[in-house]
Design a protein that fits this description.
alpha+beta; Jelly Rolls; six-stranded antiparallel beta sheet; 8 helices; 6 strands; 50% helix
Length: 191
């Protein structure tokens, strides 16, 4: 097993795959390097491939009307773009390099063929997606509650303190909301 195949085998998504399947993914992939600031996937683009960040660090961003919102920073080894590739959906987020690194670009046809032959990939993707949905549901609940408290002028220092100690997966969301809430609290004090 090559070094790259060993790195892929560390991913929960690929842990249950036979070596031949991992070898097929690697042999059907293009190896690329990237530099800080390089956009690796762009929100809204067609999903022609999935990528595996082998080395380096990337950030996941969503563009909304008011600008970019950082959702996460992810170090390698991580698979990205698999949902769009499997479901034939446009990219739901932008992935931009933070640190230099390398990736494997796996063509949609290769990725889907291996997934068809090894349904464990599909189960792993669904499990990962379910975890992400749970995280986002919790984030939406926390922030909806905080925003409702702001609307009712019931936002207090205790809520601000709670936003300062978020779970690791909510750090970026919490930082953005904490800054916004802090501005509201400061404005209320000056009224």
């Amino acid at each position: 097993m090559s070094t790259t195949e060993q790195q892929l085998h560390r991913l929960p998504l690929f842990r249950t795959l036979p070596r031949e399947a991992i070898a097929e993914l690697v042999s059907g992939a293009a190896s690329e390097t990237f530099l800080p600031g390089d956009v690796l996937l762009r929100q809204g683009d067609a999903s022609h491939h999935a990528i595996i960040i082998i080395e380096g660090e990337v950030e996941v961003l969503v563009v909304i009307a008011s600008g970019e919102v950082k959702l996460a920073s992810l170090p390698g080894v991580v698979l990205l773009g698999e949902i769009g590739t499997l479901a034939d959906l446009p990219r739901t987020a932008t992935v931009r390099a933070v640190l230099p690194g390398s990736l494997l670009k796996i063509d949609k046809a290769v990725f889907n063929r291996v997934a068809d032959e090894h349904p464990a990939i599909l189960r792993s993707v669904i499990t990962q997606l379910g975890g992400q949905i749970g995280t986002y549901n919790r984030a939406v609940a926390v922030y909806t509650n905080a925003l409702a408290a702001l609307e009712r002028d019931e936002f207090d220092e205790t809520m601000l303190a709670n936003l300062n100690n978020p779970s690791p997966e909510l750090m970026n969301f919490a930082e953005t909301l904490r800054k916004m809430a802090n501005q509201f609290v400061l404005r209320q004090r000056h009224l």
